[in-house]
Amino acid sequence: xxxxxxxxxxxxxxxxxFMAAAQILNRTPSAVSLQMKALEETFGTALFDRTKRPPILxxxxxxxxxxxxxxxxxxxxxxxxxxxxxFIGEFAxxxxxxxLTGIVPKALAACQRRFPNLLIRLxxxxxxxxxxxxxxxxxxxxxxxxxxxxxxxxxxxxxxxEQFIVIAPVDAKATKDSVLLEEYPYIRFxxxxxxxxxxxxxxKRRSLNVHITMELENLQAVATMVYSGLGVSIIPExxxxxxxxxxxxxxxxxxxxITRTIGLAELAENPRAHVTQGIYEELAAATLLR
Length: 290
Hints:
CATH architecture of the largest domain: 3-Layer(aba) Sandwich
CATH superfamily of the largest domain: Periplasmic binding protein-like II
Number of domains: 3
Oligomer: single chain
Helix content: 40-55%
Structural class: alpha/beta
CATH topology of the largest domain: D-Maltodextrin-Binding Protein, domain 2
Distance between the termini: 46 Å
Shape: elongated
Number of strands: 11
């Protein structure tokens, strides 16, 4: 029996069904179902009433729920007791792609000095997907922007603030963000990312008519396209010096400029909280906007 199966069992009970649990855990419903079948085979009894849609815990499942909670809590307690101040092992850190050329490398250099025996495995993804990975314990912590108010299953602490800017070729004549955006082709920054959605909301709110010619996920790629004269874009400005900025015209987006806040998310019951705290401190120390 795997501890992950017990965590899935708890998630199903709390979420109200297999489908809801699968979404939280970032797994397929069939994978969740297979885990529960394996758990039932281990216990030798059915734990769910599958005549219901969605399936719900039966009397036996409800009767062991508190015990399963206790087992998982004790397991997490054991992990915390084994962990030492000089943590040895792997720490999976999720990070938005936009942070990988700025705050992350600067902070990780300090982390290597602080935790010389720690292997940090970076997982780059967008905020929403990183939250799903965190909830399913695929990663230990995640650098994401301010989560929606509905996200209450983890702790998020702010690190830095980044201002959104309009970037254009250096020879662009216009000095207003609205003029640049409406007169030049628009290179869209990932519309599925939380930051991309924030940008789209403000474009709509200001009734700015942009002519989208391409959409990219990588900030460096966006900047390179703009540098090559293919259009203008809106991106978050790095809160730390990335070391290799392209010569571009930069104008704040909005008056006052809109911003996003970057922070570190972790589960409320985090057995590696002392390592997460150290990483958080180094991330905060690396920023220019505090």
